[in-house]
C-alpha cells in the first residue's frame, strides 16, 4: 500500500498536469531561510529554527511563496516536471516537493498560510490553541509530535500532555513541566492519547505515516498547508 507521501505526490502531479503546469517552463528556487527571515523576532530564543537544527526552505511559483521545514537544506532550481519526477528518497527531496506544492497551491488559491508567521505571530497562535482544542475536542489527552515551545507552554497547564521530538538535546529534558520523549516512545504515546497534535514537518522527514492512525489528528505548521488541502487533513493555523 502506498504511503501517505506517495499518495499526496500522485494527487499533486495529477493536479499540476490537469492545470497544464508540468509542460511549462516553470522555475522554482528554494533556499534555506535565516531565523530572522523565517520568524522575525518572536521575543523568545527557544524555537527550533533558532537552534539551527532545521531551516525553512522557500519555493516561489509565479510570485507565490511556499515553505517547508527540513534538516537537510540547500538550493534547488528546476521545473515542476523535474520536481515531480525526482524520487523522494531523502528529507531534502521531500522538502523541495512540499515547498513547491505549497507555492503552487497558494498560486491556485487552494492553500493559504503557506509561509511561517513572524514576530508576535507564534505567541498569538499558541494563545488561541487551547481554546480551539477545548471547543473542538473537549478535555482530551494530547500527544504532541514536534517541539514547538509556545504551544507546549499553552497546552501543558490545560491538558494531559506528552511531547515527542527527534532532537537529542530536547529528549529527556523538562519543558514547561513536560518531559520530552524520543521516537522510541511514539507507539506508547499514540496509544495513550485521545488526540494527536502533529507538526507538518513529519511530512518532509518521512515519519507522517506513524501518526495517521485511527486517532484524531490535528496537524500544525506551514509545511503541511498544501498537503492538508489536497488530502483533507485537519490543520490548526489561525488567522
Give a verbal description of the structure.
The chain has 239 residues and is α/β, with parallel strands linked by helices. It folds into two domains: 4-107, no CATH class; 121-236, 3-Layer(aba) Sandwich (Rossmann fold), CATH 3.40.50. The chain is 38% helix and 20% strand.
CATH architecture of the largest domain: 3-Layer(aba) Sandwich
Oligomeric organization of the protein chains: single chain
Number of individual domains:
2
Structure classification: alpha/beta
Strand content: 15-25%
The low-confidence runs, each spanning 5 or more residues with pLDDT under 50, are: 38-52
Mean pLDDT: 87
Question: Which series of helices and strands comes N to C?
Answer: HEEHHEEEHHHEHEEEHEHEHE
SSE layout:
Blueprint: H1 4-18, E1 28-30, E2 32-33, H2 35-39, H3 48-51, E3 55-61, E4 64-70, E5 76-78, H4 80-85, H5 91-107, H6 121-137, E6 142-145, H7 149-155, E7 161-164, E8 174-175, E9 178-181, H8 186-192, E10 195-199, H9 201-205, E11 217-220, H10 225-231, E12 235-236
Parallel strand pairs: 6-7, 6-10, 7-9, 10-11, 11-12
Antiparallel strand pairs: 1-5, 2-3, 3-4, 8-9
Helix pairs in contact: 6-7
Amino acid at each position: 500500500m502506498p504511503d501517505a507521501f506517495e499518495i499526496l505526490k500522485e494527487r499533486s502531479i495529477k493536479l499540476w498536469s490537469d492545470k497544464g503546469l508540468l509542460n511549462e517552463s516553470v522555475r522554482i528556487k528554494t533556499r534555506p531561510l535565516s531565523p530572522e527571515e523565517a520568524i522575525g523576532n518572536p521575543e523568545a530564543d527557544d524555537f527550533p529554527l533558532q537552534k539551527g537544527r532545521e531551516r525553512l526552505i522557500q519555493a516561489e511559483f509565479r510570485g507565490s511563496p511556499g515553505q517547508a521545514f527540513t534538516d537537510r537544506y540547500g538550493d534547488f532550481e528546476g521545473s515542476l516536471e523535474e520536481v515531480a519526477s525526482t524520487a523522494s528518497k531523502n528529507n531534502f527531496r521531500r522538502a523541495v516537493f512540499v515547498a513547491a506544492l505549497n507555492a503552487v497551491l497558494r498560486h491556485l488559491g487552494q492553500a493559504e498560510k503557506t509561509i511561517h508567521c513572524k514576530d508576535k505571530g507564534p505567541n498569538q497562535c499558541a494563545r488561541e490553541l487551547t481554546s480551539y482544542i477545548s471547543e473542538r475536542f473537549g478535555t482530551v489527552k494530547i500527544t504532541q509530535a514536534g517541539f514547538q515551545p509556545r504551544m507546549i507552554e499553552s497546552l501543558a497547564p490545560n491538558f494531559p500532555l506528552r511531547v515527542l521530538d527527534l532532537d537529542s538535546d530536547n529528549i529527556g529534558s523538562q519543558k514547561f513541566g513536560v518531559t520530552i520523549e524520543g521516537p522510541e516512545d511514539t507507539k506508547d504515546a499514540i496509544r495513550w492519547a485521545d488526540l494527536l497534535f502533529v507538526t507538518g514537518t513529519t511530512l518532509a522527514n518521512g515519519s507522517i505515516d506513524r501518526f495517521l492512525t485511527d486517532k484524531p489528528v490535528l496537524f500544525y505548521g506551514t509545511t503541511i498547508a498544501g498537503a492538508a488541502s489536497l488530502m483533507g487533513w485537519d490543520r490548526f493555523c489561525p488567522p
